[in-house]
Structure formats: C-alpha cells, structure tokens
Amino acid sequence: MQNNGLAGSANASASAQTMPASSSLTGGYGTVEQQIFNRDYPSYSVGLQLNLPLRNRVARSDLTRDELQKRQTQVHISQLDSQVRMQVGNAQIALQQARNAYEPAVEARKLQQQARDVEQARYDEGVDTAYDLIQFERNLAQAESAEVSALGVYAKSKSALERAVGLTLKDNNVSIEEAYEGKISRPSSTVPIE
Q1: CA-to-CA distance for 91 and 115, rounded, in angstroms?
Q2: What are the backbone angles phi and psi of residue 22, rounded to the nearest 5°?
Q3: Are 31 and 5 in contact (CB under 8 A)?
Q4: If we measure between CA atoms, which residue out of 150, 142, 146 comes closest to residue 102?
Q5: 8 by DSSP, 3-state: which?
Q6: With contact defined as beta carbons under 8 Å apart, do 106 and 148 qualify?
Q7: DSSP element (H, E) containing 120
Q8: What beta strand segments (E) does the chain contain?
Q9: Torsion sign across C-alpha atoms 83, 86, 87, 88
Q10: Is the pTM here over 0.70, yes or no?
Q11: Ranges of each domain in the chain
Q12: What's the angle, vertex CA 115, arms to CA 105 and CA 101, rounded to 5?
C-alpha cells in the first residue's frame, strides 16, 4: 500500500479546450501533504515471490567435490598403507639377509682362528715359516673385519625394521613421559643383538 499526493500548479500553456483541472489537484506542498495524510489517492499492489530450485547445481557441485575429496583421501590412505607394508617387508628381508650374512662370517672367523692356531703350533715346532704364520694371521684379521662389518649391517637392518614397525622407543626402553619430566626410573642398558 502506498499513499500518493497529486497536487501541483496548473499548466499555463494548456489550452482552454482541455478539461480544467480539479480544485483538489491544484495547490502547493501543503495540499500534497494533506492528500497523503488523508489517503486521497492510495495505490495498492500485491506481490508474491517464490523460489523453487529446480536444479540445485551449487549443492550438487559441492556434493561432487566432497565425494571426489573422499575418494582421493581413501586412495591416499591406501597408498600409505601399501607403502608401510612395503617398507616393513623390505626391512624384514634386509634383516634376514643380514642375519644370513652374519652367521657365515662368524663361522669363517672361527675357522680362520682354528687355522691360525694350527699354524701357530706348526710355527712353534719349526715346521712352518714366519711368512706362513703372517698369512694366516692376515686371513684371521680379514675374517674378523668381515664379521664386524656383517654385525654392523645386521644392527642397521634391525634398527630399520624397528623404525618401520614403530618399536624403536619401546625396544630401547625409552619413555616419552620420563623424557618430558626429565626423570629416569631405571638405569640404561644396551640391548643385545639377537
């Protein structure tokens, strides 16, 4: 609903043949205000606005985007799972290979030790020369070096498997709470290689 004021001054250039203006339409600003407050010339209008989303494209695109992100997250989780499985499997294989290399190195060192002991006895009896004894001692030193090297590879492989499985702190008796508090409840000890 709207109230209107229609008063104003008469047009002097209007011809006399036209219909003369009504007295209610002539006047100044005061007449206009009086017409508005008296509601002399109201106009009514009715409107209705109805929004019906026939195709809610924004919601559909949001749904599609969210489903795509969900699938991408699932694929990423699957890739991480496969990567963890592969790392653990590789670490287990490397540990087994290191153990298989360490055990023969220990046996080779023992055999070289026995051979050098035999050669030492032969040298003590004067059967062999110092050169022969030195060669056996060199072979023993090489076998000991190979054993230490194999032991180092085995220890690294074991550490890599612990890291891949997530047991490094537990296997080394490390407590995050104790480290945070700065208190140690037990003495440190070395973990023997199995």
Answers
A1: 36
A2: -70, 150
A3: yes
A4: 150
A5: strand
A6: no
A7: helix 57-124
A8: 2-4, 41-43
A9: positive
A10: no
A11: 2-43, 83-181
A12: 5
